[in-house]
């Protein structure tokens, strides 16, 4: 109703503002993100779960929505996680774990059963957008898995094709830097001679089905292994002299882009100059053993904050300026049960209670500046669910309007 009296004008404006505020909040929180109609994404996060102190998946959805993170990658196809993400609008890459590759490679029927149970059963409400077939297989130590990776990927794709899901769900396989013989300077990068006979047919298949090349790129690991010869500022996106690639006449002021372009150079030499590179893992440890150079909170904050700024620009690399850089940060939480050095258990951006581990631009689940009466704890939201919490918020807003 139109307000004509000056007595009621302030009240109407207050009510309109509150309703507008609520509309905007609920539009962001509850509207699914369309892959086809949304702007190009660049920032995703790996949601690892090798831990015994993490929040329930439903709470993780709440956290991701609060942080406006709409793309994640998990390392399996856990049904509890996939069910929790139903209706969230968050796009997920699921993993076909390494231990299943041999079985899936044997026949299409086994791949079909896996896809039906772990993908088709959750679509379209859970936005599964990719299947990572294995993780860091080529370049690893289990040669038997090298031989079954391609047949497994083909069988998974065949199952998707038969189900009419080949345009909805992408098939890929992330690799470590170990697949390269060298990566400095970027233009000199090539695939290892022993890896190439397995990598090339895999790339031919991925090229045919339109899949990108996924690489786990960690400036942290490079710096940790050679701190005497690598400038820490170069690894952290801070001011530095950078490096010059004489062959391409390109200058790099950070190692991350150099690592991505090294992958592009290797693809070029293998005959796949049109394939896109996507970083499936990157991050920096906030804690490490005494011999793990650079592993501390300050460096982790600097790396992840600057990486987020770089990805937000939605630009390409020096070698591929038209290919927008996309990356999944490792990781959402620290994983206290991971084996290996201390750094392996300290890559998390968030604490299990939903607060930030350190400031990289996220506000955590609930802004600390919010009035105490409005603050709702992470556990309360997780326990009550978004529906009940949203009802409480709407009820509170109505009370304010009526006042």
UniProtKB/TrEMBL annotation:
Keyword Ligase set for record: no
Keyword annotations of the record: Glycosidase, Hydrolase, Signal
Gene3D superfamilies, per the entry: Glycosidases
Annotated GO biological process: carbohydrate metabolic process
Gene Ontology MF terms in the entry: glucan endo-1,3-beta-D-glucosidase activity
EC number: 3.2.1.39
One of the Pfam families matching this protein, by short name: Glyco_hydro_17
Signal sequence coordinates: 1-35
Keyword Repressor: no
InterPro entries according to UniProt: GH, Glyco_hydro_17, Glyco_hydro_17_plant
Reaction(s) catalysed (UniProt annotation): Hydrolysis of (1->3)-beta-D-glucosidic linkages in (1->3)-beta-D-glucans
Family: Belongs to the glycosyl hydrolase 17 family.
PANTHER family, A to Z: GLUCAN ENDO-1,3-BETA-GLUCOSIDASE BG1-RELATED-RELATED
Protein name according to UniProt: glucan endo-1,3-beta-D-glucosidase
Organism of this sequence: Gossypium mustelinum
């Amino acid at each position: 109703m139109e307000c004509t009296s000056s007595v009621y004008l302030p009240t109407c404006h207050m009510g309109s503002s509150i309703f507008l505020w609520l509309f905007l909040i609920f539009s962001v929180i509850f509207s699914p993100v369309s892959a086809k109609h949304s702007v190009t994404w660049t920032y995703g996060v790996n949601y690892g779960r090798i831990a015994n102190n993490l929040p329930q998946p439903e709470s993780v959805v709440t956290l991701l929505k609060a942080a406006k993170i709409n793309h994640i990658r998990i390392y399996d196809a856990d049904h509890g996680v996939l069910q929790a993400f139903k209706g969230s609008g968050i796009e997920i890459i699921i993993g076909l774990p390494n231990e299943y590759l041999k079985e899936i490679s044997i026949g299409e029927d086994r791949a079909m059963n896996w896809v039906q149970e772990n993908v088709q059963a959750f679509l379209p409400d859970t936005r599964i957008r990719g299947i990572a077939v294995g993780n860091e297989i080529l370049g690893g130590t289990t040669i038997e898995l090298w031989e079954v990776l391609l047949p497994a990927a083909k069988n998974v794709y065949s199952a998707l094709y038969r189900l009419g899901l080949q345009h909805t769900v992408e098939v890929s396989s992330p690799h470590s830097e170990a697949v390269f013989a060298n990566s400095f300077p970027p233009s000199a990068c090539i695939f290892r001679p022993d890896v190439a006979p397995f990598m090339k047919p895999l790339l031919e298949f991925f090229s045919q089905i339109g899949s990108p090349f996924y690489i786990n790129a960690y400036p942290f690991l490079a710096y940790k292994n050679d701190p005497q010869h690598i400038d820490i500022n170069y690894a952290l996106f801070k001011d530095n002299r950078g490096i010059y690639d004489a062959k391409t006449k390109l200058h790099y002021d950070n190692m991350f882009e150099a690592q991505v372009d090294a992958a592009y150079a290797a693809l070029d030499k293998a005959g796949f100059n049109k394939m896109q590179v996507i970083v499936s893992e990157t991050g920096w440890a906030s804690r490490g053993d005494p011999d793990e150079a650079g592993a501390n909170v300050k460096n982790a904050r600097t790396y992840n904050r600057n990486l987020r700024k770089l990805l937000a620009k939605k630009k390409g690399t020096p070698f591929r300026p038209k290919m927008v850089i996309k990356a999944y940060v490792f990781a959402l939480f620290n994983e206290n049960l991971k084996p290996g050095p201390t750094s392996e258990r300290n890559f998390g951006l968030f604490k299990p209670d939903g607060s930030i581990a350190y400031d990289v631009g996220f506000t955590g689940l609930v802004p600390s500046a919010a009035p105490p009466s409005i603050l709702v704890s992470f556990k309360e939201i997780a326990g009550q669910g978004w529906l009940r919490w949203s009802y409480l918020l709407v009820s509170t807003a109505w009370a304010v309007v009526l006042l």
